[in-house]
Specification:
Shape of chain B: globular
CATH superfamily of the largest domain in chain B: Aldehyde oxidase/xanthine dehydrogenase, molybdopterin binding domain
Structural class of chain A: alpha+beta
Largest sheet of chain A: 5 strands, mixed
Number of domains of chain A: 2
Shape of chain A: globular
Number of helices of chain B: 20
Bound molecules: FE2/S2 (inorganic) cluster
Largest interface: A-B, 51 and 55 residues
CATH superfamily of the largest domain in chain A: Beta-grasp domain
Strand content of chain A: 5-15%
Radius of gyration of chain A: 15 Å
CATH class of the largest domain in chain A: Alpha Beta
Number of domains of chain B: 3
Radius of gyration of chain B: 27 Å
CATH class of the largest domain in chain B: Alpha Beta
CATH topology of the largest domain in chain B: Aldehyde Oxidoreductase, domain 4
Helix content of chain B: 25-40%
Distance between the termini of chain A: 26 Å
CATH architecture of the largest domain in chain A: Roll
CATH topology of the largest domain in chain A: Ubiquitin-like (UB roll)
Distance between the termini of chain B: 50 Å
Oligomer: heterodimer
Amino acid sequence: MTGDGRGFTLNGKPASLRAPDNAVLVDVLREDHGLHGCRIGCDQAVCGACTVLVDGTPMAACSTFAFEVEGRSVLTIEGVANASDGAPDPIQRAFLEERGFQCGYCTAGMILTTRALLERDPDPTEATIRAWLGAGVCRCTGYSAIISAVHTAARLLRQGSV
Amino acid sequence: MDGLNDKVGGGTRYAFDAALPGMRHAKLLRSPHPHARILGIDASHALALPGVVCVVTGEDAARLPDPHHGFSVRDQPLIAIGKVRYVGDPVAAVVAMDERTALAALELIAVDYEVLEPVPTLDAALAPGAPVLFDEPHPGAPLGVGAGSWSRNEPAPNVLYEYGYARGEIDTDLAGAAHVFTDSFAISRISHYYLEPYSGVARIEDGRIELWTCNQDPFMIRADISRMFGLPVNDICLHSPMIGGGFGGKSYCKLEPLIVLMAMKARAPVRLALTLDESLLTLTKHAGVLTLTTGVDAEGRLIARRSELKLDGGAYADASAMVALKAAYRVTGPYRWKSVFSRASIIRTTTIPAGSYRGFGGTQASYASECQIDMIARRIGLDPYEMRRRNLLDVGEPFAPGDSGMDSDLRRGLDEVCRRLGYHERSQHPGHRNGRGMGLAIGIKDGGGTGNHAQATVTVSHTGAVTVSAATTEIGQGAGSTLCRIATRTLGLPLANARYAPIDTDRTPLNNGTHVSCGTTVTGTAVQRAAEDARAQILEFAAEQLQCPAADLTLEESGQGWAVRRGADLHPLAPLIMSWFGGVGYVFIGRGGIKVPYDERSPVRARNLFWMPSWAGAEVEIDRETGRLRVLQLIVGGDAGHAIDMASCVGQIAGAALQAYGLSLFEELRYRDGAQPENADPRAYRVPMASDLPDRFDCFVEEHGMGPGPFGAKGLGESGMLAVTAALANAIEDATGARVTTTPFTGERILAALDGLDTVVPMDQRSAAE
Ligand code: FES
Ligand code: FES
């Protein structure tokens, strides 16, 4: 938290929010903060490509006003890997291991959704995974490899892998 | 993180992300009418808006040496000239300092239209006296064909193209067959729905054009821009960054010439990034009606088939001609015939242009063919499995006289599907034929392109660092990693040594585009040859240094970097190279290429490089009250010949299969009253989500070892789509005795089939029937 004026926490660091009131979060992240990993697909809260975690909850950045995140903590895909050495976190490792992506356009959203899911349910059933991933579209993979990645990520996290 | 890792870290850059200093932003004004003449465009108010740089219209386009593009029929202006032909046809383009201003300026452009009668359907387009989309024929040579085939551009009003193929005495054979059946199948219009919206950035500097685009065919676009603007190809450079999905929707010329024209007029770099809504208005898969008349003998052996395919090409040619040719040629499936007559026509309608979609007409052809094979089997009392077994081509047997032999074991793949599905045990299930059933299908398409060619280089530094350079774009299929595997395997070096060079047409060796699952086989062969060339140079150099025959040496990676082995002795290469060359070292530059020869004796003017079979099996359960379809199992397999990267092969099958699954169950881009798109936006257009998956979704890849590519590989990126729809329709009939013949297989359609009401709904009544 910046404490002075309008601010929010972005990938663990205090950040200021200079955007006008009608600015959309995805534009602020991409244009003001250079975080292009937050993708724009449908631009209308359907595809999930722009998913970020706001206080741990997945939200469509394309359909969230920037002012809505004031004082809150936003995590984008760029903040997922280890901050000091860039090493992928267990969920990213699982996506790499299971090839949970093809073109990669949906991947940030899928990984962040998985993170939120596994925080709530460390050992999700297949049905739970399908329901959670159903919040986004992947047009490339047929989802099989993404679902395997979620299972693998859950296993890695349960094993206390860091 | 390396290139692959970037996708999980958010670092990958797509054309959508491309940005240049001083870049301006463009937005397009699109036609609200399906068919209208443009009487005038008043952009003065838009130009007066602060921040607007310029407006580009058909008037600017008309001044170019050749403002049209299109594959084989060049009928599409880079922006509407004089007329609009579908809702969404771009009419004016605004360039402004930012997107918001450009959007605001669109509202200020006044277009004066004279509204014309729309031509929304196949029937409307072919009706006597129908309004015509074009008054004049267009330049462009019909696709070349060989023995038994014909190919005609614009043979009749509102008919863009016709391809036909005939062999044998079709009338005699049909007359002499024990049974003859005629069936029609309708397939809906679907959207590619790739996630990265269509985007590009152009800059003109020192008279040279540079373009960053999400298009997968950089050299094709370079040739189009060269012709349209009258510039030599070496004044045009295309960059192809990672592409955020395409499935055919980002192939062939699209908005690139318009972006260039805008950058010229704006005298500044210009970015045009469509929304996904607009991307849906750019291209679709062909809807159509396919009518097959098939004769069989008393034992269920296929004798003769006459096929008439009418495909809805929409307003402009795009790659429609290729789709027609491929659909008609493949509609006989992977079977043996005495005689064949196949004809496909592309009909022009005032709808979104249709073009390439993962398999060029393969899905449409396999769907109709495999449904009918199943129907015939059931009608004559044969198990559909047995009917297929009896008629499948053997390994080595030519698909058609003059064409190449089957290079997959078709029965083996079918048996694998049956095994995974539990097909032969299905009758033991109490629900079988009582709302629960199984269906099979085998799709087939040719792969690798017709007379295709490609070039590649493989450079190896003195430290053994390998750079592979080829123009197969990265669209999610893992092209770079597969080509690097081919190069390093050939060189005997670890994969970690190799990088796939970014693609730009100034430096990258040419290929025809990323199409027809040719990346592994055609470009892969060029890469393999380039790697062999580099290896030969390296070994020759080492042999000279070591004063021995090159044949005594092999390359390998050792504890001290890369080395040549001569018997028991290992000689590290880096010191050897450095002591000879000095300075900053040296690179060995290997070159490779491949050209599949044309052959007039083959029906499509080249023997097909490899065959892509697709085996599918489905188990479904139908709720007889609601018609609701539940897919219990979907099994889909392909043959990679030899899988260079198994995980990516399976991923390609799964991704393609799920697109066909969407098309089968609910995907459809509909038109309201035949004129206005009803659901051409990402919210209303439904694609499969993880929550829609079949209960069991199992994809497999066989390795039959007969591919022509490196190590026996062949492509399979498109094949997973081919057989799914027919397998589902066949399972529905197995479950209920009722046949659906129109996609998607909605509850309403299944109920209608159960009531015995199902007939092919003519295209022009479809929207009314929804
Ligand atoms: S871009 Fe935000 S949900 Fe699709
Ligand atoms: S990997 Fe392309 S959309 Fe998911």
